[in-house]
Amino acid sequence: xxxxxxxxxxxxxxxxxxxxxxxxxxxxxxxxxxxxxxxxxxxxxxxxxxxxxxxxxxxxxxxxxxxxxxxxxxxxxxxxxxxxxxxxxxxxxxxxxxxxxxxxxxxxxxxxxxxxxxxxxxxxxxxxxxxxxxxxxxxxxxxxxxxxxxxxxxxxxxxxxxxxxxxxxxxxxxxxxxxxxxxxxxxxxxxxxxxxxxxxxxxxxxxxxxxxxxxxxxxxxxxxxxxxxxxxxxxxxxxxxxxxxxxxxxxxxxxxxxxxxxxxxxxxxxxxxxxxxxxxxxxxxxxxxxxxxxxxxxxxxxxxxxxxxxxxxxxxxxxxxxxxxxxxxxxxxxxxxxxxxxxxxxxxxxxxxxxxxxxxxxxxxxxxxxxxxxxxxxxxxxxxxxxxxxxxxxxxxxxxxxxxxxxxxxxxxxxxxxxxxxxxxxxxxxxxxxxxxxxxxxxxxxxxxxxxxxxxxxxxxxxxxxxxxxxxxxxxxxxxxxxxxxxxxxxxxxxxxxxxxxxxxxxxxxxxxxxxxxxxxxxxxxxxxxxxxxxxxxxxxxxxxxxxxxxxxxxxxxxxxxxxxxxxxxxxxxxxxxxxxxxxxxxxxxxxxxxxxxxxxxxxxxxxxxxxxxxxxxxxxxxxxxxxxxxx
Length: 632
What we know:
With 632 residues, this protein is an all-alpha fold.
């Protein structure tokens, strides 16, 4: 079933492009892109509960979302195409048309192909399972999807936006090859958009397209037949491209921002009323088309105007981090969301906790994937990130604070070990999700996680391999934590017992894959509970180290949470919370416990790795510790 036009995916622009010059950087456009991505996640989670067909649905459905989604539905997609065109213009200022094309294709083609082949099939497979179209495994679905008979019907899902941006780029590059034409077009548009016309002229065009092309073609997200979408999206893409450098247009958008915002709010209320009313499409839907187009453009004009006024130079580390993370998070977020819905749906949770859980998994999982792939040079281009050149260090002289060229080499081995700590919870979570997806009859509420690795599971090796790798990563992480504490001048005894706690945990995880559940020897996995003492040991190790206030609070909260969860889940031996855990929910409690038990490891490893990078650029005297000068 085709998603209604106002509910079409509103994806984001590809990863940020380099700006032409420092003064040309438009932080407001980056903030708009980041904000639109946040709205995109909310939009997709809302579709899980909306009264229309989507890839995956919750057991809960809310009719009022038909009107609520209109708050962003008409304009997010259009805004992002406009911002994408403007960003391409800034990027092209220092490049020839050919260089611009090569840079754009290098940024878009690898992630598009990677996504179509590896990220979209799990989504369509889970949708087919959920809707009864397919009963086989993922490998069978993948082979079916890419069989010769299906090649013209390969699903793109949310990656259609990447394809459209790539195609539209060639129209913009064609203009770059004719600078005279481009200059005349810019001048013509600038003249006709002067003053209040900046609110009226684009609205008239969007209304005309809504009245003429939309009733015939609708929105298909299929490139060859999506003529209404092209008429709107290509037009605003080129609009942003041609007017990005015209300051008079931006000045008019700022000047007319208040009327634009007021008009957008009025049109939104009117559009919601028309959508809710059975006769809202009176007079062949012509009034509603005008209201839709007015809301669409006035909202965009208000966002651009206020953004230009308030955020134009609001640059900083946070914006640069989020801008770099946008494209990888966009690529993976829908796969994570669909998988999360499939896993969580049988739990029959109330709507609000379920929605919050889906948001947490989607946002947290997307950022976790970004943190992982940005550190892996060979795979960065597959996620829309530039390949980072490997630094070459030719000097063998001792490192000092005045050797910034060699600073990245300091603590490199300790940082590699901490990366294992970042990867351990990701590996554990991935193995859990993969195993549950191949075990449709698995009951999350009543069955223990270890059942996924037992002979009762269809593919126990899938789960056990993940746990084995997680255990090995946990052992490496323990060494990384201990050595990081020593590098920062922390307590040596605390560093040693931290390593011991992780070594015991790693041993428990690894040996649990030798004796599988329900073998009594599988209880050796309880050695992994030693990791829950590690937060206290790390706090002890950091007690003499300045800073880390938030990390210390986090570790203390995690330790207390694990104590409470230990008491709750071991109700047979610690009768402090009788009746909270029972046979109907023991599996859910075990998952909460496991999430806390492994999740804090990745967060702590990430923060300590960041500190080592900081120390690497400061020199051995920055902490007053002799231990910092030595590298493992």
